[in-house]
Specification:
Blueprint: E1 8-15, E2 20-27, H1 39-44, H2 49-54, H3 57-64, H4 69-90, E3 101-108, E4 112-119
Antiparallel strand pairs: 1-2, 1-4, 3-4
Helix pairs in contact: 3-4
């Protein structure tokens, strides 16, 4: 997000079987996409939303393999936005830094549900846990 626009929104679509269809994550003022490309969407599309909501950032890093610190930061923003939208929708316990993620609207239809969320992104990435410190 190179410009000063820090507010963003995400629209998450879920099918009637509670599987992720897709999402659109963008800056609110200019509509430019936010994220690390389509890798994370491809990783999550079709997945059960509860499992997608429980994916760790370390798993996202392993699966998407960002090429730079900027790509890593954009992936984090994308991962966190999807995670928060789904966790709030499911009524799961919030993360410690969830205050800047607000569901604005949930639209339910016969075939799909759409979650609209407004986001104020974090200032920095969370610490990366070294492999030897991760639970196995």
């Amino acid at each position: 997000m190179p410009c000063e626009d820090t507010s963003s929104s995400i629209s998450v679509r879920i099918d009637k079987d509670e599987r992720l269809i897709d999402y659109h994550y963008e800056k609110m003022t200019c509509g430019k996409p936010v994220g690390g490309g389509k890798n994370y969407l491809e990783r999550c599309a079709g997945g059960e939303i509860e499992k997608v909501a429980e994916l760790s950032f370390d798993d996202a890093l392993k699966d998407c393999r960002p090429r730079s610190k900027e790509d890593e930061f954009l992936l984090y923003l994308e991962w966190k936005a999807v995670r928060e939208a789904l966790r709030q929708y499911l009524g799961m316990a919030p993360d410690a830094d969830s205050d800047s993620y607000k569901i604005a609207e949930i639209i339910s239809g016969q075939e799909e549900t759409r979650i609209e969320m407004i986001i104020f992104p974090p200032d920095e990435l969370p610490p990366i846990v070294p492999c030897h410190d991760q639970k196995r």
